[in-house]
Amino acid sequence: MLSVIIPVFNEIATLAKVLSVVSEALPGVEKEVILVDDGSVDGTREWLRRNFPEGPRSGLAVMVDAGGNLEFSTGPGHCTTVRPHYHERNSGKGAAVRNGLALATGEVIVIQDADLEYDPADWTAMYDLIARRKVADVVYGSRFYGWPHRSLYFHHYMANRFISLMFNLLYNQTLTDIECCYKMFTREVKERLRLTCDDFGCEVQLSAQIARAGGLRIYEVGISYYGRTYEEGKKINWRDGMKALWYLVRFRF
Questions:
Q1: pTM for the structure as a whole
Q2: pLDDT, tens only, 132-190
């Protein structure tokens, strides 16, 4: 089973569609989707309460009706189960990821954002390396390998490349995009993680712990990236970039 961890904060416009495309990915694999709503105030929480009035729901596929609500189809095959969880207040992406990891029960785990910047169809190559070919323990997605990539902010691009460069120097790796949301890994790797960051620093801390664990087989594959502007809901900013540089040093030493 694949556990999909989705931290959610104010994503009322995209969450339903994300759940639909997640259910379509890897159709031959059973999936549990762990939604962690991090104190949303834009109607996302009310939407979740309305669509999951009794807790988890399961189906062969998840569809979105004309009113923007979810329908779960039934039938033979591997199903998708969606389990919502709620933070009483906004605690940060790291806190949501940490709680999602604690709840995950699958043999393989992947992190998915609640917007539409990433395409779950790209999981196929990642999952193949871990679960089918069994040559990887961890697989990173990379937005810099020639797949469709929306052209947005040059300073974001340079910041991401610089953070990855500094990470590689400090941790003796060759990864191109450690800030990428898509990180897929085995349950054994999950059990070795001890995340404490509540903010976007969780990306650096997770990668630092993986790199320092020793003996893990780490791969990277190209993925698509349909980035958002700030007007469209993008949340990360330059302060998070500065924190990431500090975390690189902090978690190394």
A1: 0.90
A2: 999 999 999 998 886 776 776 687 778 888 989 999 999 999 999 998 999 999 999 99
Residue 88: both structure tokens together = 């009483």
- Rounded Cα–Cα distance for residues 179 and 215 (Å): 22
Domain spans, the chain: 1-115, 117-253
8 A C-beta contact, residue 118 and residue 112: yes
CA neighbours closer than 13 Å in the CB half-sphere of residue 72: 14
Q: Strand locations in the chain, DSSP E?
A: 2-8, 31-37, 57-59, 61-64, 70-73, 80-86, 108-111, 138-142, 183-186, 218-222
- The C-alpha atoms of residue 201 and residue 247 are separated, in whole angstroms, by 7
Class for domain 1-115, per CATH?
A: alpha beta
| Residue 235 per-residue DSSP state | -
**β-strand pairing of 80-86 with 57-59:** antiparallel
